[in-house]
Amino acid sequence: VDCGGGCVRICSFSVQEPTVKWSRAFRVTDGMYNAVGYVENTNREAASPEIKYKFTLLDAAGVIKEVSGTTILPPDGEYPIFEGRIATGSRIPTRTFLEIEPVEVWQPATAGREQFSVVSRELLGADARPRLDATLRNNELEEVKEVEVVATIFNAEGTALASSRTFVDNFAPRSDLELFFTWPEPIATTLRSCEVPTDVLVAIDVSGSMNNDQADPPEPLTSVKEAAARFINRLGENDQSGLVTFASGATLENQLTTANDLVSTAVGAISIDPSEESGFTNTGEGLLAAANELTSPRHNENARKVMVILTDGLATAPGETEEAEAFALDAATSARGAGIDIYSIGLGESVKMEFVSALSSTPEQSFQAISSGDVDRIYQTITSSLCEQGAAVIDIVPKSTSGFVPLR
Fold first, then answer.
1. How many CB atoms lie within 10 A of CB 158?
2. Which domain holds residue 258?
């Protein structure tokens, strides 16, 4: 190809080929995934109006799906390549590869990322049907046509969590445009930035055994109350908390509220009903009561749902131990299915940790407190794991061929 003289094509030997920085597939719904990869073009002016790419989604058995296409590669920056609604059937991708072919045509481009700017962005409904509202500005003096805009959400550590795409047919010069991106399912449990609020339901065992260590003041109950109250006081101003106690049955002591000081005070007022001194421990009812409140209209749809349950004994109601444990495990499974993140704390050396661990969302979210003094440390650990310090990053990247010098 003649790339000298008055030709606007740029010779391939004078440019750096683009490189794939990373690629991932994100579940949209069962059997449906979006794939995105970021490609870096280090050339200051050289760009391409068309590069060919291929996404390959794999699992342990091999290739699930290959999807090919073409896209724009602007100059001087990292740009996303997006492929939406990839059907995978019953298979779940565990690896995603993005390949790009050598660029066939390099051309000068007059604009890169500076062609557009993001004026504002706001993520809503993270625990319901997430929607990202954004205002995009065209900084150019010319109208821009056929703009592809990809939004990718990263956690504070820089790991991509979700991606979506929209298109703009005509973008007037020096103007702002309102855009929105949507996802059909919650992303709050994966987006652990502290900017996303948390609704926390604390469930505490108040069966008779919670004063077996000491009667006045009752221990381990007193130490548990103090630690739980401090845990609630550490929540953010946009977080909500609530309180459930359980013994033979369960009681919703406090509905979800942002008045966390009131819930903390209520925790301090917990006592063991004398009738429960020889009663039972109905862990399942405690889980159900907490889950019902977290899925009630009082739940903030912008917040993640978290339950922290503490118990010092075996589940003994309803029925015998085996039946009681099965009831509790079913309640925990149902809660997790409703998008509730469960932390479980087993108190004492004799607590059945196999059962307590099975209640939590992951093994890392289950803890054993050998003594009452361990409880405060565990609640502090849970506080740290609820969210990641640092802002989540929402990268919104428009691409258009309008900045390319026409071929001649």
1. 9
2. 198-386
Burial of 2 (0-12, 13-18, 19+ CB in 10 A): exposed
Radius of gyration of the chain from its Cα atoms, rounded to whole angstroms: 27
pLDDT in tens, 100-133: 999 988 998 876 678 899 999 988 888 888 899 9
Check: pTM over 0.90? Answer yes or no: no
Identify the helix (H) or strand (E) that includes residue 153.
strand 144-154
Minimum mean pLDDT range among 82-86, 271-275, 331-335, 358-362:
271-275
What's the gap between Cα 181 and its chain centre?
16
pLDDT, one tens digit per residue, over 65-96 is 999 999 999 999 999 999 999 999 999 999 99
**Cα(168)–Cα(191) distance, integer angstroms:** 27
How far, in Å, are 21, 63, 164, 203, 381 from residue 85 at the CA level? 22, 17, 10, 40, 38
Give me the number of domains the chain comprises. Answer: 2
CA-wise closest residue to 235 among 215, 255, 257, 208: 257
Phi, psi of 90, rounded to the nearest 5 degrees: -90, 0
In a domain, 7, yes or no: no
Q: Do 83 and 110 lie in a common domain?
A: yes
User: Looking at residues 168-188, what average pLDDT do you find?
Assistant: 91
For residue 281, give both structure tokens: 């421990």
Residue 312 lies in a domain: yes
| Statement to judge: residues 205 and 115 lie in one domain | no
Is the CB of residue 295 less than 8 Å from the CB of residue 289?
A: no
- The strand pairing partners of 22, in sequence order, are 38
